[in-house]
Amino acid sequence: MNDAREVEVVVIGAGQAGLSSAYHLRRTGFRPERDVVVLDHSPGPGGAWQFRWPSLTYGKVHGMHSLPGMELEDADPARPSSEVIAEYFATYERTFDLRVRRPVEVRAVREGSGGRLTVETSDGDWSTRALINATGTWDRPFWPRYPGQETFRGRQLHTAQYPGPEAFAGKRVIVVGGGASGTQHLLEIAEYAAATTWVTRRPPVYREGPFNEEFGRAAVALVEERVRQGLPPKSVVSVTGLPLNDAIRQGIADGVLDRQPMFDRITPDGVAWADGRHVDADVILWATGFRAAIDHLAPLRLREAGGGIRVEGTRAVADPRIHLVGYGPSASTIGANRAGRAAVRDIRRLLAETSARTGEEQEPAVA
After folding, report:
1. Residues 337-366: pLDDT tens digits?
2. Exposed, middle or buried by CB within 10 Å (0-12, 13-18, 19+), for 133?
3. In whole angstroms, what is the distance from residue 307 CA to residue 231 CA?
4. Which of 49, 53, 347, 359 has the largest count of CB atoms under 10 Å?
């Protein structure tokens, strides 16, 4: 189609944040395909969960919160989380008639005409009055650069490519990263590998006791302050620390979670430190996290000098038409649910105010 199709709201992404937002739009009267369209680049339902490694069973998932309006119940903890959550998301989309369009790649969001935004996609363009960006981080794995990296004769891969522990049988493996993924990888791989080495930039900070509401609020407040200043969000573990559960305790006792400081360079057959120490390796696994997948928003020039997008709640300070759900403090599953509701509330207010000024027809009434 040459002409952009017009809607009131475009939602980009159909993971937890996108589906939560779509649910609240639907619940307050926005009609799928007429008032709102949900675009997802993945081949099927499940968000980033559908790409997780098979050994990450549902019982190992930390803090998966149900979507609004439908509980995730009676899930088999022994099944891969990729299967459990993909099925749950698929059922959710059908139940609430969200009509997610996929696979659709969003290439750019630009200023359109008449105060609208133009969303350029692999399936043609959309013209919208507001946009909810819920693209998460899975598509932007962070690969640090170290001297000699290109000379390594073994295999290098990122958490996003992790195939499961069996692939490392008999290998000497270096795992880089101090987050939850890094420790999970190590505990799994150690049963198969010839040797494992754990390196991190900073010593791990272990957290004892439950992750209660007070602790959660404090952690969220720290992330909120960063995005309010226009700084990129930090990793979750940098705020919360690593939970000191039975598996972690056993890994420490067994010597698997014996953290080493970050190496200084990579050699053809391993890694080396400035003090002369060297560890041979067949594989370097970079469990170094992800960055927000927001490059398609670049034409709007929302980034601040600090490298992030300045956000109040979910609203981009530089452009109130743009809401980032699942970004910064709303990156958790429960945070994404709450943020989806808040974003829809703000968007309804914005559209009502815009309609009142221009004399256009009001947005849909509450169902």
Report:
1. 788 999 999 999 999 998 877 666 554 544
2. buried
3. 6
4. 347
